[in-house]
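Have a close read of this protein, sequence plus structure tokens, and explain what the tokens say about the fold. Thanks in advance:
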Amino acid sequence: MPTSATSDDRTLVAPPVDSDQASTLSIRHDYNSDSDSFEPDAALRRRQLHKKQLVRIVSLICATLAALCAGSIVVFSLYAPKFQSRLHYTQFQVNGVAIAGSLSLYLPISVMGYVCDRIGVAPLALLSSVLFGTGYGLAATLYRKLDIDYNVLGKPHGPGNEWSYLLMIFAFVCVGSATCAMYIASISTCAKNFGKGKYRGLALAMPITGFGLSGMWLSQFGSRFLYETNADGSRGDIDVFRFFVFLAILLFVMGIIGTFTLRVVDEQDLIEEAIEELENSGLLDGSALLGRSDRGYETAGPTTPAGDLDSDPLLHPSKGDDAKWKKNWVLNAETRQFLTDHTMWPFALAFLFMIGPGEAFINNLGTVIGTLTPPTSGFGEGTSAATHVSVFGVTSTIARLLIGTMTDLLAPAPETQHVQVAPNRSHHRSSPLRHFAISRVVFLLFFGVLMSIGLIFLASGAVQNHADRFWVVSGLVGAGYGATFSLTPLIVTIIWGVENFATNFGIIAMLPALGSTFWGLVYSAVYQAGAQGSGPAKSGSGSDDGIFCYGKQCYSATFWAEGICVWVACVLLFWAWKGKGGWQQRGIVI
């Protein structure tokens, strides 16, 4: 016969609570044992929102600071002439070092983007720290040794030091890879943290702008504070050894800071929202996510059997919890969707044809300036590589900031931060300036034309013997280069979403390595051919004959071809936008 419970021995029997509910309760209530009360939900949510916002802001600031230092490879032209005059490298050898840096900057970016999306940004920041320290440390050691051997001890060039050139190549491979890691970690953090905000263009533009600005301040700092002293006590050219040591220390420290401060907030929410969007569009079968079984899944994308996804070792049920598995499953499906989008390829080629000439220009800016003045005058008399690296950096920075701000104000914006795939289904809001909108593609085409004008202005010979006009070239090319690097990742996030941004942008961003290499080799061949008929070297040393070049013949053909290449890029971009099955026809908001 049951007995009634008294007030003293009465117990409360709660219904069973599963682990997810328990986790939710533990998050939603902050129990105070002293007052036997729970903190109100609204107050706790506000506190959590403030904490998340603080993390976003700190990550944005640190990402911008990291990018502000990461673009050190852009100032290569500042010390490239020293590789010729002090280390006795030929133009082909100088470009070999530059190309090694450019290839390692772009080729690993798809792999690093894949790692960034699936593992996180902190490992990439740590990797950049190690590679920067190794690369610039080794380059400083090699430069110091060869400089002393050739110019102090008077040892003949070459014998006993054949290995040094390969080590210098390796050093700049480390520098390029480190730049890639720090850059992709910085912009990926900002893209994912601010993908929902109406100022996502500006948030993404900040680290991109910092990267462009790094060339300006590093070149000015190096030339003004880390310089050699002439025999008469006046300030000479940059001290390359001290500059490399400075970069090694600075970038090692910035990589360590980024390891602890770059964080993506609510990344799992991004994945859940992406799943919902893709299910609504019919590209994913939601039932496949509800249960994993040995038989695989019926569909994973528009053209991809889910069995292919299930064969990925990252996605095997034994490899991790459901959240991680679901994230990898969705990101791989989105990668395949990205690769099968026919508009992605002309867009990627347009990026290749714009950035390739820009990269080759900035890598060879120093030697181009040297061709503008007669051999009897000083090297680049009336101007300097540091000045024009700064001009390039300033115009690139202004373009990046303008793009971020103006596209937020003037361009239409989709309501979603995920992939736009379904024709004519993309709901969008107009630009903040009502009834007036300019597509981001128009901005990119405009700055592409500006870049081509700068290249053709140089190719025409208008700057020859008028080095004071060179700012027109460096300014226009810098503006076009900066705008392209700002708009391309922004367009990727808007059309193909933010959750898989690093992978998608990495696939596109690895292509300019081909353009940089190709145009670097073309410039070297034209320069070297021109050097054979340019007369005695500027140094006056017969041993340097055939190394230096003076005159329009040293560069004109190269930059005519580069200008035409940028025009081709504009045509490809216009086709992706307005062509058959293009973004406009599919109703994609861009």
Confidence is low (pLDDT under 50) at residues 1-38, 292-320, 423-427, 536-543.
